[in-house]
Amino acid sequence: MKKIFALTLAVLMIFSLAACAKKEKKDDGVKVMSYAEYDAAAMDAEVVIECYVQAHQSWWDNKITVYAQDEDGAYFIYEMACSEEDAAKLTKGTKIRVTGVKGEWAGEIEVMDATFEILGGDTWIAEPMDATEMLGTDDLVKNQNKLATFKGLTIEKIEYKNGEPGDDIYVTVSKDGKSYDFCVERYLTAPDTDVYQAFATLKAGDVVDIEGFIYWYNGVNTHIVGVSKSYSKN
Amino acid sequence: MKKLICLLLCLVFLLPLLGCHGAINQEPMAEPVAGYDLPDSFDTSRRHEITFWAKNDTNMTQVNIYKQTIADFEALYPNIHVNLKLYTDYSRIYNDVITNISTNTTPNVCITYPDHIATYLTGQDVVVPLDNLFAHEKYGLGGSELLFDGPTQEEIIPKFLEEGKIGGVSYAIPFMRSTEACYINKTYVEKLGYELPETLTWDFIWEVSDAAAKKGADGNYLVNGQKVMIPFIYKSTDNMMIQMLRQQGAGYSTEQGEILLFNDATRQILDTVAQHTASGAFSTFKISSYPANFLNAGQCIFAIDSTAGATWMGSDAPLIDIAESELVEFETVVMPIPQYDPQNPQMISQGPSVCVFNKEDPQAVLASWLFAQYLLTNDVQIAYSQTEGYAPVTSKAQQSEEYQDYLSRSGEDNDFYYSIKIQASRLLLDNTENTFVTPVFNGSASVRNAAGQLIEEVTKGVRRGKTINDDFYDKLYGDIRSLYRLDQLRKTGSQALGPLPGTAIFLLSAIGLTWAGILAYLIAQRLKKRQKMVK
């Protein structure tokens, strides 16, 4: 009897170890894409990337939208599955591995239907690139989703989505005679943030430097995260 | 004493058994309140502050109408102050209300959908039942003490009023009504060699869409010469599934909360969607973006969206969301959604409704009710309906000279009298009797989401190279049931439980007989004792 019992225990132990080993192998087998590989991937292809969180929109309904970047490029991860508890861990610079599907929505290249895991170890925060000279050129879209600065823009129009503070702010700016639509996205920078409130003090004619993520909606539609006035039109 | 213990034990035994039949109803919905009694008079000596959560279609004219409405109402009732909170998304209102129910901080009046109210009703006395308020002599619909010329109950379109009932009790009044419409690039339909039929059919749309998906040797689409063409884009795939099922007489859900969505007709619809996604003929808003933007850029031929989106549709639309350089000139036609049976057209009825939330102070509820009713006055109804392809919900407004004049001036300009917008409104006015709504119960909002998600997942599946077969569907159905917790949805009411099974009837009868036996025994024993005492 004792022998049978010992044998059963041994078999169970072997099965447990085998199960663990299988899991380990699966993790090792994940092929993580470089940014170049991600960029080259076809639409609707499954992608696995590792990147660093730069910002995220407010968590809602077990989903979160993340602006992420690495040293080679940037990613917009739309409505990634995420618990509220995990959302709190997605601080700036956190390294994550994201598995999802590459998609395009109104010109914005994004990772859809994504899941993620937080990777320990290093953190990284992107320095904004100066994209001022790229405005109106094909180079801008090649840097889609990156954190960037745009200097010396003239404000043409500031419109609140609902006519009053509380929702998105649509900002039309111009540079060298061309107009561009930027946006203060309320789920990224809420009405109580400095950048949101700064727009209450700005007016058409003011010249500003803007920092934001190069988001796309039927053309460039930078999501603004910072603004500073360099010239005031009284 | 022994008998008493015996009796108690019997009761303890019996109660759990009785509970067995109610096991499906583990989280009972609050019992519908039959009526709510308003105070006899409105206290004008007190100041009442009420909040109104409103939804607009990202349309500043609508925002301004809300503001004007509040100003006009406050002029009539100076002791009521209305705080407006604006939304552009029903689901955000729904989410915020749910969050605020637990903290007793719901708004006083709220734009909503009956599906959402059914969820709010899982809380106790959260939403005010309106039937008694409708009928109130002084402050009811057309009441004697109202300071405005509101509609009587008979003047609210009965079909629309009926849509606010849950379990036979009215919890919402309609505010605006819309349906879905198909906005068509007629120029391209004819270029492809087709003529629009009198009534659109699904077969026609799929055939033309497949034809439009053909490319030339240069990789551009033949019909528009562009790199992009999605011939058929559907905005709300939940509506798509619901209407396709309804038109075929197939199951979706029942009034008792039974979910019939996962049936053979659904699978056939999904097969059709898969087939035309594979041919490049079909996509959805969630996957590709707004139908209007593709339509206006000459990259879509059939765009199905709400009639309340009409101002965005067409080369001459007053609201445009793409660069002017991308606009393409074409003839726009607006028609009812495609049908399976052209002789028996059916389309969804949708649009905002209004509910009143319960508060401890009955005077606050009365103030809220007065404001809710004010939204039905002609000034508000006509002005708001003119902002989009809406229809007013009262015959009083629909038949008014002002509204009839508005309809008659279709096409006078491309702004206020934009022809597509007015035609979209007419489409609903002409088809009100062909509209329907889906059953409302706690969880009906989830079933609706599930219906749309089935189409989204199949469309994505095809685009991602998955094989759409029985295994795919079996997994999809399981995933969707799980995602929307459809298996956990509680059924409501005795009808939902269905007839008692034979074993339960037998058991209950046996218990009844045992009880009768125990009682008979006790009585007999007592009589015997008395007789002994008498002797």
Structure description:
- The complex is a heterodimer of chains A (234) and B (535).
- Chain A has two domains: 35-119, OB fold (Dihydrolipoamide Acetyltransferase, E2P); 129-231, Nucleic acid-binding proteins (OB fold (Dihydrolipoamide Acetyltransferase, E2P), Beta Barrel), CATH 2.40.50.
- Helix content of chain A is 20%, strand content 41%.
- Chain A has helices at 2-28, 35-40, 84-87, 139-142, 194-198; strands spanning 46-56, 63-69, 74-81, 95-105, 108-119, 129-130, 147-160, 169-175, 178-184, 207-213, 223-231.
- In chain A, strands 6, 7, 8, 9, 10 and 11 form a six-stranded mixed beta sheet that branches. Chain A has a five-stranded antiparallel beta sheet with strand order 3-2-1-4-5, with no helix packed on it.
- Chain B is an alpha/beta fold.
- Chain B folds into three domains: 2-21 and 503-534, no CATH class; 48-178 and 350-432, Periplasmic binding protein-like II (D-Maltodextrin-Binding Protein, domain 2); 180-348 and 438-488, 3-Layer(aba) Sandwich (D-Maltodextrin-Binding Protein, domain 2).
- Chain B is 44% helix and 11% strand.
- Chain B is built from 21 helices and 16 strands.
- A five-stranded mixed beta sheet of chain B has the order 2-1-3-14-6. In chain B, strands 10-9-11-8-12 form a five-stranded mixed beta sheet, sandwiched between helices.
- In chain B, strand 4 (165-166) and strand 5 (169-170) form a beta hairpin.
- The radius of gyration of chain B is 28 Å and the shape is globular.
- Mean pLDDT of chain B is 90; it is low at 8-33 and 492-500.
